[in-house]
From TrEMBL:
Family: Belongs to the sigma-70 factor family. ECF subfamily.
UniProt-recorded Gene Ontology molecular function terms: DNA binding; sigma factor activity
Organism: Proteiniborus ethanoligenes
GO biological process: DNA-templated transcription initiation; response to stress
Name the record gives this protein: RNA polymerase sigma factor
Gene3D superfamilies referenced in this protein's UniProt entry, alphabetically: 1.10.1740.10, Winged helix-like DNA-binding domain superfamily/Winged helix DNA-binding domain
Length: 185
């Protein structure tokens, strides 16, 4: 794991290599995150991510060291993606197909079938969440951001994020219990 804050300090002191290291560390996750706002359009997400890093480069003094660099760029990425989609007059949010992609390293065919069914159940439940719940849960589970960081990225208060994630988890649990119950009957 890199020391992002030290790299950012080095960047502030003129090190282009430090900035490049930050870009290389976070660009893929940022592109994936932005693609959720662009309807899965990776080309557009890459362009927006490039704009994010250009913004950081130009306005480097705006970074608040109280937050992680990842939180900072995700917040900028979210805002730029929403602005772009507004201009395109279509805002969509796709489910997280890639994040729930199936793995092929199972020991037996039975394990593979069980794991596939479990993932499909989770995936189906996740798709039924409100987009706001999806985003919050995605940032928490897949990007491993703290509640405070998620609040910053989503532009919400800490209690609102706690409620969103709590409700999303409960909704998924309820749906999964219902599905398991229906399959047993």
């Amino acid at each position: 794991m890199i020391d992002e804050k030290q790299l950012y300090r080095d960047f502030l002191n003129g090190s282009i290599k430090a900035f490049e290291a930050l870009v290389l560390e976070y660009k893929d996750n940022l592109i994936y995150f932005i693609s959720r706002y662009t309807g899965g359009d990776l080309s557009t997400a890459e362009d927006i991510a490039q704009d994010v890093f250009a913004h950081v480069y130009v306005y480097k003094e705006k970074y608040d060291f109280n937050y992680s660099f990842k939180t900072y760029i995700f917040r900028i990425g979210k805002n730029k993606a929403i602005d772009f989609m507004r201009k395109q007059s279509r805002l969509s949010f796709n489910a997280y197909d890639e994040a729930l992609e199936m793995s092929s390293d199972y020991k037996t065919i039975e394990d593979k079938i069980i794991k596939t069914e479990e993932k499909l159940l989770i995936y189906d439940s996740f798709k039924k969440l409100k987009p706001e719940y999806q985003r919050a849960l995605y940032l928490y589970v897949f990007e491993e951001l703290s509640y405070k960081e998620i609040a910053k990225v989503m532009g919400k208060s800490l209690p609102q994020i706690k409620i969103l994630i709590h409700r999303a988890r409960n909704f998924i649990k309820t749906l999964m219990k219902e599905e398991v119950k229906d399959n047993e009957e």
